[in-house]
Amino acid sequence: MEILNQHLSKIRTPLGGEQVFKDECVFSFETPDSENGLFICLNTFLGFGHNHVERHYQKTGNAVYLHIKRIKKELKQDNGCGDETKKPTRLAIGVEGGFIPEEGTKYEVLDFTSIVVLPDFIEIPLPNPDLPELVQLSVASILAAQSPTRAGEASALEGTWDGEKRKVSKYADTLVQLDNDLRIPPKGWKCERCDKTDNLWLNLTDGKILCGRRFFDGSGGNNHAVDHFKETGYPLAVKLGTITPSGGDVFSYDEDDMVEDPNLAKHLAHFGINVTQMEKTEKSMIELEIDMNQRIGEWAILQESGSHLVPMYGPGYTGLSNLGNSCYMNSVMQVVFSIPDFQKIYFENAERIFDSATADPARDFTVQMAKLGHGLLSGDYSKPPPDDTVDGNISNKNQPGIKPSMFKTLIGRGHPEFSTKRQQDAQEYFLHLVNVIERHSRGRENPAECFKFEIEERLQCVKSGKVKYTKRIDYLLSLPIPLDLAVNKDEVAAFEAKKAVIEARGEKIDPNAVIRPKIPLSVCLENFAAPETLEDFFSTAINAKSTALKTTTIKTFPDYLMIQLKKFTLADDWVPKKLDISVDVPDILDLSFLRGKGLQEGEEELPDPKPDEPEFDHAVLTQLFDMGFPQEACKKALYNTENEGIEAAMNWIMEHMNDPDFADPFIPVGSLKDNTKDDFVPNIEALVTIVSMGFSQDQAKKALKETDNNVERALDWIFSHSDELEPTPMETETGSSSTVQFRDGREKYQLIAFISHMGSSTLVGHYVCHILKEGRWVIYNDNKVALSEHPPKDLAYLYVFKRL
């Protein structure tokens, strides 16, 4: 033990608030399950794979590590009865109660631990009572500590979205049950109108047992339960075979939805059914829907179900495990790391980034990006086994992928949505990723620049003919979907009529027979560039309201253009819905017609408004003043009602007449005059954090003032309000603040990747991506990576084009 004594001064015991990274290497995806196990430093409590532990030793001098090597022993499978507690109860993926596809073989896990002393990797097996007490205490505390990954998952699951959260039926407390002395047996059920013995529903009003709806493929029932509701109006029915002590599947025909019935036990007892003795014998409606989603429709098309997908291995073909509805993140990260700009910075320079890592690499965004890039692109975690096919199809067992848990925790920290395990919008995540990369690229090369472009908007006052040009930065081109311009309207109309007849019969539509509105991408682009009429436009040329024409074009064209199709909209009842459409997307795209050209010869610009004071509707202002109100109060009324008119201004005056500053001089919010006093005191730690990222103290203070001292929001504010900030001295010298650089070039592009969403909302469903590699399309479905046979380009949500 003498070798340990010389290092005791650097051995610590983790206190309650210290994080212990014992699940995964901070520089790689090595874990205790890896061939060489994981080494946890007894000073910093950071975990390292065998290839990185020496780097940490040489940098810190910390020589003593706890080595954990995990061995999995395969267990015998059960007797085939299955574990009902593992059945999915929610339409979510990878979370408790959700759908866990192809869980695979069950194992017994055995951990072998030892103390390892560097640089010679001297190993001392554990347990060992002869070890110094300090070492034993440190080891015990590390093994007992909860890892940040586990702690983050537990936190994220609090309040997590439930994909099938059902509303309590309006009939639950008022349901009338007939006193007919009917007693339902615990088994042996049969439809009272046909010979069906499965998919049976018990009406909770009169106790009738009838078969359910007929599905599109002929399976299911004969619609007798639906017919019974139409005849009697009795609303609630429970699916027999799904009843357990914890409940069952209840459908409300009147509410046309699956519902909760908190009084189900009482309602069943009315017919002699004791729920404590019931066992589940049929699939729930969620299980049936999951099965259906896997087999048919959009899910099957986008995942290329039924195709004999050939698995791919090696550099660039590594999958990402789904960490609980993280497929939106997985798809975006696969796409961005297929782009050379990201590969150059985060993969080719990975070793340099690791060598220059901070004392806390787990919280260093650049380190974690390099770690993810190396994991995806090195091929270290994507090696072909001897046999990886099951009936010719790709399997999960030999394509485990890597688990980006540390990265997911880091990029989601402080974000109200991306820090949870709820499903999110891939488009919003892409913009969030760009924002975070921008924060951490001050003074260094920014790979997200390859997506950056400039939008040009032209406003023309109809009455004066004068124009105003404005520009803004964007990283993604969002295109509305003009459904009225579909090229197959007649076919869609005929299908909708047929669909109405089928649904009226209580049957379901075959998803394979669905005819979607078909719209060429060119039509979406032309619609984007078409002039838009703006009513109530205040024209500075005539100092009055006018009508304006707004035209949007692209001023600069990036190396890589991300296009979003706005498939998600609000229905008339304000419920989010997804447009079920097919968009004809070409492989080659010419966008030269979208090029913005700025002020043209013969055009006259609209005059700028007077500084520090907005324009008012002088006719209304005069009316108010003639009524006897103070002139400054009249200005405030028009300013706060945005010149809406005399009625709105009068209402504002009536509401604020008793304000102590009613007649005080009018000072527009944010004007130079409004900065006469400033009592704001910034949070010192937050101020230091922002300044350390390359911003000036004045910039940091203004951002913190606008965001109530919230450092995360302040950084977001800075990047979205850069035009409102005074430049830093360095920026003034280089001119970088006044002239933003763009990578402009020719307007011709090739499609190289697309991300598809399946599901009715961005908050449910699943994302996959397809990437063009070496002339072949490859599908990335979380950890599954395979050659694509039928890339569904027409059903995607996000598209990435590379400039030719």
Explain what the structure shows.
By secondary structure, the protein is an alpha+beta fold. Helices cover 27% and strands 18% of the residues. The chain is built from 23 helices and 28 strands. The chain is globular and about 95 Å long. The N and C termini lie far apart (65 Å).
Give the helix/strand layout.
Layout: H1 2-5, E1 38-41, E2 47-48, H2 50-60, E3 64-74, E4 107-117, E5 122-125, H3 133-144, H4 148-157, E6 200-203, E7 209-211, H5 224-232, E8 236-239, E9 250-252, E10 257-259, H6 264-269, H7 285-295, H8 297-303, H9 327-336, H10 340-348, H11 350-355, H12 365-377, E11 389-390, E12 393-394, H13 405-412, H14 426-439, E13 453-461, E14 467-474, E15 477-479, H15 489-504, E16 518-520, H16 521-529, E17 532-539, E18 544-554, E19 560-565, E20 568-570, E21 576-578, E22 582-584, E23 588-590, H17 618-626, H18 631-640, H19 646-656, H20 684-691, H21 697-706, H22 711-720, H23 729-734, E24 748-758, E25 766-773, E26 776-781, E27 784-787, E28 798-803
Parallel strand pairs: 15-19, 16-22
Antiparallel strand pairs: 1-2, 1-3, 3-4, 4-5, 6-7, 6-8, 8-9, 9-10, 11-12, 13-14, 13-18, 17-18, 19-28, 20-21, 23-24, 24-25, 24-28, 25-26, 26-27
Structure, briefly:
By secondary structure, this protein is α+β, with helices and mostly antiparallel strands. The chain folds into 6 domains: 2-157, Zinc/RING finger domain, C3HC4 (zinc finger) (Herpes Virus-1), CATH 3.30.40; 200-290, Zinc/RING finger domain, C3HC4 (zinc finger) (Herpes Virus-1), CATH 3.30.40; 310-450 and 747-803, Cysteine proteinases (Cathepsin B, Chain A, Alpha-Beta Complex); 451-594, Cysteine proteinases (Cathepsin B, Chain A); 618-667, Orthogonal Bundle (Helicase, Ruva Protein, domain 3); 680-734, Ubiquitin-associated (UBA) domain (Helicase, Ruva Protein, domain 3, Orthogonal Bundle). It is built from 23 helices and 28 strands.
